[in-house]
Specification:
336 residues; alpha/beta; Rossmann fold; eight-stranded mixed sheet; 10 helices; binds S-adenosylmethionine
């Protein structure tokens, strides 16, 4: 049984490449491709640098941001049933994809520890700041927890886990991160997760459900403007890391919900015609007045869509847990 942590490095960084600049080169290439594309687009994965992760923590505390509150309720109310399921077959690796501050996972970790379950916790996140903070908070809040944080993107981390961790695996994918994938990509990603699991392994996924469009829109357009600052931080990050000269005040945060597609889309809209030079790309990018950059999609699901997604990706549906208002679902997928 792989229970000892004393020799484990508390943080594995899969993004530190030998030339030291691989991440920045990837970011610069992404920005060049996205700002040259018609219409312009940037990926939400670049939201989460240090300031972005801190802003997301503030978002999770906003009165309008129901997803965290609802998922917190689902996990708290069902922690005993979930922990019993996870720990039903002896030692397991608990892999938390896009763990962030693991606010909700910590409820399960404490429950598992109380039950003296045999497991190793492996939070994974693209944000090094988030993983450093999580490692130290785990040491203070859950002493004795067997854990090792992995800094890397989902794909590289799944490969690393495949090569380095054998035995039963349970994957957590909370916070409706799946909603950030376009529908076809989400199926591809779930199939990829399934290909890294063995029959009998599980996936616990948090999924935001369709509801009153106004409730959804408010969650991404809060009164205090924290979500606006979070979206605009992407331009600050380009300025900081790639030597951009974005006038961030020349852009506005614009979110819109499409109730037919069940998708919340966020944009950054240029208030005037302008050119932006980005040193690391060696290029200028032109913006027409009111031209937008698409920065995030967040899909909301129905229960039948979830059922279809489970079946199309090589799993069976074990259990659906929901909050009292039916806002959010945490679903156990069983690998067959
Ligand atoms: C919406 S937060 C959710 C955090 C947490 N799971 C929760 O439920 O509160 C998304 C997290 O996923 C991470 N993330 C986004 N894209 C990622 C990627 N491609 N690979 C790894 N982590 C990613 C972000 O850094 C961020 O911490």
């Amino acid at each position: 049984m792989e229970l000892k942590t004393t020799t484990l490095d508390p943080l594995i960084n899969l993004t530190r490449k030998e030339n030291g600049n691989k991440d920045l080169t990837d970011f610069a290439n992404h920005v060049t491709a996205g700002l040259s594309h018609t219409p312009k687009k940037l990926s939400s994965r670049y939201f989460y640098d240090g300031p972005g992760s801190a802003l997301f923590q503030q978002i999770m505390e906003l009165p309008e941001y129901y997803p965290t509150r609802c998922e917190y309720e689902v996990i708290t109310e069902n922690k005993s049933a979930i922990a019993a399921h996870l720990a039903s077959e002896g030692f397991f690796h608990l892999i938390d994809l896009g763990a962030g501050d693991a606010l909700k996972t910590k409820i399960l970790l404490k429950e598992l520890q109380e039950r003296r379950a045999a497991f190793e916790y492996l939070p994974v996140d693209i944000s090094e700041d988030a993983m450093q903070q999580l490692s130290s908070s785990l040491e203070k809040e859950i002493p004795g927890l067997n854990h090792q944080a992995v800094v890397g993107d989902y794909n590289d981390s799944l490969e690393w886990l495949q090569q380095n961790k054998s035995g039963r695996k349970v994957i957590l994918f909370l916070g409706s991160n799946i909603g950030n994938f376009e529908h076809e990509e989400s199926l591809g990603f779930l199939r990829k997760i399934r290909s890294h699991l063995e029959p009998g392994d599980s996936l616990l996924m948090g999924i935001d459900l369709r509801k009153d469009p106004d409730t959804i829109l408010r969650a991404y357009n809060d009164f205090a403007g924290v979500t606006a600052a979070f979206n605009l931080n992407l331009l600050h990050r380009i300025n900081r890391e790639l030597g951009g000269n974005f006038d961030v005040n020349g852009f506005i945060h614009y979110p819109i919900y499409n109730p037919q597609e069940g998708v919340m889309r966020s944009y950054l809209v240029s208030k005037q015609e302008q050119d932006v030079y980005i040193q690391a790309t060696g290029r200028s990018f032109h913006f027409n007045a009111w031209e937008a950059i698409h920065t995030e999609s967040s899909y909301k699901y129905t229960l039948p869509q979830i059922q279809a997604m489970v079946e199309a990706s090589g799993f069976t549906l074990e259990t659906i847990f929901q909050d009292k208002e039916g806002c959010f679902a945490d679903v156990i997928f069983h690998a067959v």
